Amino acid sequence: MSLSLHLLFLVLGVILPAFLFFNARKSGKGKPIYWSPRLKVRMYYGNGVLLLGLSVVVLIFWYFNGRPLTDLGLGWGRTPYEPVAILVIFAFLFLYAVDLFAEIGSRARQQDTREKFRELGFLPSNGMQYLHFLFLCACAGIGEEIVYRGFMITYLQEVLEQHSWGIAATLMIPAVSFGLAHIYQGGHAVAKIVAMALLFGFFFYRTGSLWPLILLHTAIDAVGGLLSWYLEGQEE
User: Fold this and answer.
1) From 70, 106, 151, 181, which residue has the greatest number of CB atoms within 10 Å?
2) Residue 44 is part of which domain span?
3) Where does this protein have coiled-coil stretches (predicted)?
4) Closest-CA residue to 228 (of 90, 136, 93, 94)
């Protein structure tokens, strides 16, 4: 593993999440942001381009180190996929459905979820905003999977001995890094995000493919935006 890839992992896996974590804590003590419709749309495209940009940086570094992009999961991997990997995806879908019901299963839960979304502020509240939000969903699905699963897990697989503790660290470090990057959503959300990242990481570890994860990640974010739009519509 080259020095450039070591430095890239340090920046994306340690420095960036630490910066986002401390910045979120600092912002939480200040005046809340007023998310006007225009500001929301600007954030969707700005953050989307940033996430894609980070993944492009990874691809460029990887390419100029003479590494095939399939090593990052940009292929169908080791097919047919192991039953345990497929089972993990179905387990995730089941847990996601349970969590979704916990958020909207009753009027009281819907109100709690609506208030939580409003605290975040940037989620779409109508159809036009949602269409713009889908760009961010696609960029997050592609960018975050390449960075946090494709690059970080592959990097740690090669740097750490793949015995019990090495495998655990290979899956846990990117998951925690991914969770800290979403600290602005609150501690409870971060715990769920880390759990999701562990399951996604396990799938990638066993299959070597990101494509199913990119599609699933994009769909999850899109459902979250759709839920926000739906709940805001219930208030009208």
Assistant:
1) 151
2) 34-70+77-233
3) none
4) 136
